[in-house]
Predict the structure.
Amino acid sequence: MIKLKGLEKMSKAQRLAYTKLLLRSQGGTESHPRAIEANAAAIIMAVVEGLNWAGFYWVVEDELVLGSFQGLPACTRISYGKGVCGSAWKENCSQRVEDVENFPGHIACDSASRSELVIPIRKSGELRGVLDLDSPYLGHFTQQDQVAFEEFVEILEGFLYD
Ligand code: SME
């Protein structure tokens, strides 16, 4: 069990640091990537403010397939190059979208989503999936968020099988 302590007093920077600490601590008690992935989504939603969806899509053949997440039910498959997630895959880099309505091909899973951050997940030099974060606020994600979640994903990558 994960105990969340003192969240209400934490600044945004502290909350971002806390997600990484909690994820790292998962590695001490669990080794299965699926279980760690599931708690990773829950950790983000429990600790970080201003999100309406947090979860994973994983590469399966030529598509991204929905993994663990927290939020409303979402589309289960995303093609290479489609939407924000498919673009992160194709371009092999993080996508920080201020206003999803201005992103060509954005896939609206939850109509409340206004901005989005997608981070590629890699193992052994290959893109394996993405972390997808949605916010109901325009321009919610900052460079600070992007750096923090890239570090979060780096920790997660250490728990994936080769
Ligand atoms: N908006 C994403 C699709 C996934 S949902 O946001 C959960 C996209 O455009 O790729």
Summary: The chain has a mean pLDDT of 96. Residues 53, 74-75, 78, 83-86, 106-107, 109, 113, 116, 132, 134 surround methionine sulfoxide (CB under 6 Å). The helical segments are 12-29, 33-47, 83-91, 143-157. The domain at 10-161 is CATH 3.30.450.40 (Beta-Lactamase).
